[in-house]
Amino acid sequence: MSTKPTLARNDGHAETTGSAIVVGASLAGLMSALTLARTGVEVTLLERSDDSGRTGAALHVEHDLLNRLTGRTRINRRDAIPAGLQTWHSVHDGLRAAARADSRIRLLPNTIVDAAAQNHNDAWVTTRDGRKFHADIVIGADGHRSTIRRHVAPDKPHSEFAGYVIWIGIAQESELRARSWPDGVDFLSSTNGPLLGYPLPAKDGTLTPGRRQLGFAWYDATRNTLLRKSGAIDGSVVQHSLTADQIPEEIYRELGAEARAEFPSPWRDAILDCVNRRAVIGTPISEYVPNNLANGRIALVGDAAHVPTPMTGSGFSASLHDAEALAKAITAHGVKGPAAKLALATYERTRLTDARRLVQSGQQFSRSLARGVAA
Ligand SMILES: Cc1cc2nc3c(=O)[nH]c(=O)nc-3n(C[C@H](O)[C@H](O)[C@H](O)COP(=O)(O)OP(=O)(O)OC[C@H]3O[C@@H](n4cnc5c(N)ncnc54)[C@H](O)[C@@H]3O)c2cc1C
What we know:
Blueprint (H helix, E strand, L loop, with lengths): L1 E2 L14 E6 L3 H12 L2 E6 L11 E4 L3 H6 L13 E4 H13 L4 E4 L4 E6 L4 E5 L4 E4 L1 E4 L8 H4 L7 E13 L13 E3 L6 E6 L12 E8 L3 H6 L3 E2 L2 E2 L10 H14 L4 H10 L4 E7 L6 E2 L2 E3 L14 H19 L5 H36 L1
Parallel strand pairs: 1-9, 2-3, 2-10, 3-6, 10-19
Antiparallel strand pairs: 4-5, 7-8, 8-9, 11-14, 11-17, 12-13, 13-14, 15-16, 18-19
The protein binds flavin-adenine dinucleotide.
C-alpha cells in the first residue's frame, strides 16, 4: 500500500511548500515537525510507540520555546512550556499538544519504520506492517539507535556504548523526611561515579521547596557485567534501557546501601524512596560523533544525528538547533525537486561542526569515568 500525505490542507500561516516524513515523535521529531510545518511543509510523523513516555530525565528549556518553534507570538499559559529545568514528560506533553494542534502535522503512533529509500523525485519509508509513505524528504528523528542513520551514514550506523549506566529516578519532596531542600542543581561524587540532583516543578507546576519533585541522574561505571548479561549491551552497541522491573533485587539493595553510605540528605532520601518503590530506570549511555547529517533527500536530527553524553546537558538544545537550522535551509531552498538535496546539504553544513564538537566535548568525561572505575 502506498500512502501519500495530502497537500490540500492549509492552516493559513503559509502556503504548502512540500512534504516531509519525520520518523520518531519524541522531542527532536516533534520540534522538527513544528518548524517544518511553520515553513509550509506537510509533515507525516511516524512513531513506533503509543502515547506513553519513556524516560524520567530532566531538561533545561529555553525561553519562548513554542514561539521559536511555531512562530506564534500569542501562546496561552495553559499551552506554554515553562522555561528552566522541566521533566522530560512535561516537555514531551507540551510539544505533542502543539503538534496535534497544527493542521499540517499528521501523527501516526504504533508505526514502526524499517527502512528508507530515495530516487531523484522523492523519498519514502516502509513500515513493519507493509505500508509505504512518500514525501519530498525523510527526516530521521529516531534516537540513538536510529534506523534511518543506516541510509545517511552506512559506514558508521551505530552509536557506541560509553562505558557506564545512569540510574534515574524522581521522588516527591512531600514523601521525604528531609529537613532542608536544595536551591538548585547539586553535583556530588561517589565511588561509582557522579550524581546530579535537581529540583523539578511539582506536577501542578509548584516551585515551593518541600512540595516539588527531586530528580537524580547517578552515573555508574561498575555495572557492565549486569548490562551485558541482561542484553542491554551487545558488543559495543546499546540495545535497551533497564526498566524498573528488569533491575535485579540485588542491584536495588546495592544502590540503597551505596546511597546511604555516600550521599547527604535529601539526595540520599530521594534515591532510597525510588529504590524502595522500585521506581528506578537504568539507561546505558552511548555516544555518536557524526561524519555527516544528510544524504540526498534524507537527513538526521536529534540523537539520531549526534549522541553526546547527558553530562553535556545539551542534547535537547542541540535538537532544537537542528530543527531551526532545518527549517531555515528549507525556507532558503525549498523541498520540491532538486531543491531538497540542496536544502539538506545546507542543513548539514550549518550543523555538522557544532554537532561533532558537542559530542567530542563530553568524550573526555566519559573516558575518564569508564577508565577510572575499571582501573
Ligand atoms: C539519561 C539521559 C539523560 C539526559 N539528560 C539530558 C539533559 O539533562 N539535558 C539535555 O539537553 N539532554 C539530555 N538528554 C538527551 C536528550 O533527552 C535528547 O538529546 C533529546 O531528548 C532528543 O532525543 P531524540 O528525540 O532525538 O531521541 P529519543 O528521545 O530517543 O526519541 C526517538 C523516538 O523515535 C522513535 N523511534 C525509534 N525508532 C523508530 C522506528 N524505527 N520507527 C518509528 N519510530 C521510531 C522512538 O520510539 C522515540 O519516540 C538525556 C538523555 C538521557 C538518555
